[in-house]
Specification:
about 550 residues; eight-stranded mixed beta sheet; five-stranded parallel beta sheet; FAD/NAD(P)-binding domain; alpha/beta; binds ligand NA7; 18 helices
C-alpha cells in the first residue's frame, strides 16, 4: 500500500472497500500494458474488465473476417525485446484469433491474470477531495478505493446501433460486429443483410459473400478502400523482425503514424513532376497497406489539389474491379477526399459486388423506412432476411468512458461536463478530475490516427511516470490547471481543424451530438512527434501548468 493511502478517511473502514494504489479499467491492449507498467513500478493494482476474457476489441470483435489493418511487425507491444522475439506471427495482417492469443500470452507470461477481475464492469468512480482517492464501484457490488484510476477503456468500444423503427420486431438473428458471440455462427444458406461499409463492414462483406445464399449490403457512405497485400509470414521474416527491434522501436516512436516505411520522406505534391505522380502512387499502392494514406505526398492531408489527385487514383482502382458501371458509381466516393476519413483495407470487397448473390442498396437513394419481422424496408422495397449484421461503428472516443458515472471535484459529473464541453489535456487527464487518467481518449493521436500499440505505449508510460512523480513527491493529487487544458485544446484545434480530415464532418473522427450533428474533432492531427514532445515537456518541467494537493 502506498504511504498516501494510509491516510484513509475516517468514514472508510477496511471492511468496506478493497484498497489498492491504482485501478485500471479495461484489459485490452492499453489496459494490459498499463497494468504491467504500474506493477513494475511497485504499485498494488486491480484491473477490472467487463468481458469474460482478455483482449478488449480483440475479445469483442470476433466477427467473420476480423483482421488488424496495421501491417507486420508494427502491431505488437514495444516494451520488451524478449516478448518481441517470441512473436510468432503467421500473416502480415493477423486475424482476430491470433491477436487475441498474443494478448493472452502476454498476460500469462507476465503473470498478470491474478490482478485482473474479468466479467466485472466498472459502473462508477467518485473522487474524495479530502483524501485524494477514488472509490470505484462495479456491477458485482464491490467498491475499491485507489489513489489513481486509469481508464484504458478503448476509443472504439461502445457500439452504436441505429435506432431504425421496428428493429426490435425482427424475428431472425441480429448481431453487432463488436458484440459477436463466441459460439460459432453458420451463415451458409442464409439471407444476410449488412449495415455499414466501414473497415468492419468491408471485412464482413468480403468474408460472407462467398458463403451466404444472399447478401444485401446497405451502404450509406462509399469508401476509398486500399487492396491489402497479406502474405504469410515465414521464418526469415520472423528472423529479420528479431534483429530489427531496437532501431525500429526508436524510429516508430518518432514516426507520424506509428509505422516505419523503408523509403525516404514523401515529397510535396508540387515537387513531383506531373508525369511521375501516378507512377509514385502505383508504387505505394503495391505495398498493400495504409502507406498511401500517410505517404502519398507530404501535403496530401492539407492540400486539396494533392488529395484530389490521390482520390482520383483510388477511384480508378475501384472502378476497374466492378463489372456493372451502375454499381461502381454507387461504390465510388465522389463527395470527399481520400484520407479525410478512416481508410479501410480490403481483400475482395469490390469483387463481392460482381457476384450474383450480392446486392448493393444505396441508402442515400432509398433510406431505411423500418425493420419488421422478416427484414428491412428501404424506399418502397422490402428485403427478406434471416440475419441482420450491424457493422455500424462506435460512440467514438467518449462512449466507453461516458458509460461510467465519474464524479470529480465537487461531485461534478464527467459525462455531463463532456456533454456540453468536451476537453482533455493531451487526451490523458481532465481538469476537475485529479488522479484520473485515460488512454485512447479525445485530443491525442491515439484517438485512432495512429497505430495503436505505438501510441498506447507512449500514453501508458506517460501516465505511469506521472503517477510515479506524485508518489515520489509525496503529493496527494495531480490535475491539469484550467489554463493548461484550454491551451491544449486551442493547440489541438489550431493544428487539427484545418486539415482535410478535420474539415470532413462526415466521419467518426468527429463526435456526434445527440441530434446526430457532427461536433468536436477527436483525433489530434499534429503528429506523434509533436504530441510526444508536448507530453515530455510536461514531464520534464515537473508538470508545469498542473495543480497539486
Ligand atoms: P465505422 O468506420 O464507424 O463504420 C460504420 C459504418 O456503419 C459506416 O459505413 C456508417 O455509414 C454505417 N452506419 C452507421 N450508422 C448508420 C445508419 N444509421 N444507417 C446506415 N449506415 C450506418 O465503424 P467500423 O466498425 O467499420 O470501423 C471502426 C474502426 O475500427 C475502424 O476505422 C478501424 O480503426 C477499426 P457512414 O459512413 O457513417 O455513412
Amino acid at each position: 500500500m502506498s504511504a498516501h493511502l494510509a491516510e484513509r478517511p475516517q468514514t472508510l473502514r477496511s471492511a468496506d472497500a478493497q484498497i489498492v494504489d491504482a485501478v485500471v479499467v479495461g484489459a485490452g491492449l492499453g489496459g494490459i500494458y498499463q497494468l504491467y507498467r504500474l506493477l513494475q513500478d511497485g504499485l498494488k493494482v486491480r484491473t477490472f474488465e467487463a468481458a469474460d476474457g482478455i483482449g478488449g476489441v480483440w475479445y469483442w470483435n470476433r466477427y467473420p473476417g476480423a483482421r488488424v489493418d496495421s501491417h507486420f511487425p508494427f502491431y505488437q507491444y514495444w516494451f520488451s525485446k524478449e516478448l518481441w522475439d517470441e512473436g510468432a506471427w503467421s500473416e502480415r495482417f493477423p486475424g482476430q484469433p491470433e491477436i487475441e492469443r498474443y494478448l493472452n500470452h502476454v498476460v500469462d507470461k507476465y503473470d498478470l491474470r491474478r490482478h485482473i477481475s474479468l466479467g466485472t464492469r466498472v459502473t462508477a468512480a467518485t473522487y474524495n477531495e479530502e483524501t485524494g482517492t477514488w472509490s470505484v464501484s462495479t456491477d458485482k457490488g464491490g467498491v475499491v478505493r485507489a489513489r489513481f484510476v486509469v481508464f484504458n477503456t478503448g476509443g472504439l468500444s461502445e457500439p452504436m446501433v441505429p435506432p431504425f423503427p421496428g428493429h426490435e420486431l425482427f424475428a431472425g438473428e441480429s448481431y453487432h460486429t463488436s458484440r459477436w458471440p463466441k459460439a460459432a455462427t453458420d451463415f451458409s444458406g442464409k439471407r444476410v443483410g449488412v449495415f455499414g461499409t466501414g473497415a468492419t463492414g468491408i471485412q464482413v462483406i468480403q468474408t460472407l459473400a462467398p458463403i451466404v445464399a444472399h447478401l444485401t449490403v446497405f451502404q450509406r457512405t462509399p469508401q476509398y478502400a486500399i487492396a491489402i497485400r497479406n502474405p504469410q509470414i515465414d521464418k526469415q521474416d520472423l528472423a529479420r523482425m528479431r534483429t530489427s527491434f531496437e532501431g525500429l522501436r526508436e524510429k516508430v516512436h518518432k514516426s507520424r503514424g506509428g509505422f516505419v516505411y523503408d523509403s525516404p520522406s514523401p515529397p510535396r505534391f508540387e515537387d513531383v513532376p506531373p508525369d511521375q505522380r501516378e507512377q509514385r502512387l502505383e508504387s505505394i499502392w503495391s505495398d498493400g497497406n495504409l502507406r498511401l494514406w500517410s505517404e502519398s505526398f507530404a501535403d496530401s492531408g492539407v492540400n486539396a489539389e494533392a488529395a484530389a489527385f490521390v482520390s482520383e487514383f483510388v477511384r480508378k482502382k475501384i472502378r476497374a474491379r466492378i463489372r456493372d458501371a451502375r454499381v461502381a458509381a454507387k461504390l465510388v466516393p465522389t463527395d470527399y477526399y481520400f484520407g479525410s476519413r478512416r481508410v479501410p483495407l480490403e481483400n475482395g470487397f469490390y469483387e463481392s459486388f460482381n457476384r450474383e448473390n450480392v446486392e448493393l442498396v444505396d441508402l442515400r437513394e432509398e433510406p431505411v423506412t423500418s425493420i419488421d419481422a422478416t427484414g428491412i424496408n428501404t424506399g418502397t422495397r422490402h428485403h427478406d432476411l434471416d440475419t441482420i449484421i450491424y457493422a455500424t461503428g462506435f460512440d467514438a472516443g467518449v462512449g466507453s468512458i461516458n458509460k461510467i458515472d465519474i464524479r470529480g471535484i465537487g461531485g461534478a459529473s464527467l459525462r455531463s461536463l463532456w456533454q456540453t464541453s468536451l476537453s482533455t489535456t493531451v487526451g490523458m487527464q481532465v481538469h476537475g478530475f485529479p488522479n484520473l487518467f485515460m488512454t485512447m481518449a479525445p485530443f491525442a493521436p491515439a484517438a485512432a490516427i495512429c497505430n495503436v500499440p505505438v501510441c498506447v505505449d507512449q500514453q501508458c508510460n506517460w501516465i505511469a511516470d506521472t503517477i510515479g512523480f506524485v508518489r515520489e513527491k509525496g503529493l496527494k493529487s495531480i490535475q491539469p490547471s484550467a489554463e493548461t487544458e484550454a491551451a491544449w485544446m486551442a493547440h489541438h484545434n489550431a493544428v487539427s481543424e484545418p486539415t482535410l480530415l478535420g474539415q470532413n464532418r462526415n466521419s467518426w473522427y468527429r463526435r456526434k451530438g445527440p441530434d446526430g450533428a457532427s461536433r468536436e474533432l477527436l483525433a489530434y492531427m499534429g503528429g506523434i512527434p509533436t504530441y510526444r514532445a508536448a507530453c515530455e515537456k510536461m514531464r520534464s518541467s515537473g508538470y508545469e501548468g498542473f495543480e497539486f494537493s
